[in-house]
Amino acid sequence: MNEGRLTSIRTPNTGGCTMKRILVGVVPEGDFERARDYISELSDYSDYGDWLDSRYGRFMGLSIAGAEASLETVALDDFLNWCGAHRMRPSEAELDAYAQHSRLRSHREPLSAAG
Q1: Taking residues 20-39, what's their average pLDDT?
Q2: Which domain holds residue 81?
Q3: What does residue 65 show for φ and ψ, rounded to 5 degrees?
Q4: Which of 114, 50, 103, 37 is nearest to 76 (CA)?
Q5: Is residue 39 part of a domain?
Q6: pTM exceeds cut of 0.70
């Protein structure tokens, strides 16, 4: 009986909803034109601002749906290397997955390794 009480103390009350942290990956503006060569979906947008508006729309939609969402800027070269190492085609979905992966990885590395 005590065990159930400890669980309720440790678990934040979110009104029965579980918040999920989701990162929406974006590349820096200076890398956008080069990113278009690798991420086919980017050709659907007229320029970086148009694409960023779309990514912001995804962020807003996720937030309204109850997710804890945020935009995460990732280095294009690191993303492309990650896709190559995992034999994945670069895409917006993989950009989001990489943002999540790199954020989790950076939180686990000791400060001396972040160098």
Answers
A1: 95
A2: 21-107
A3: -75, -5
A4: 37
A5: yes
A6: yes
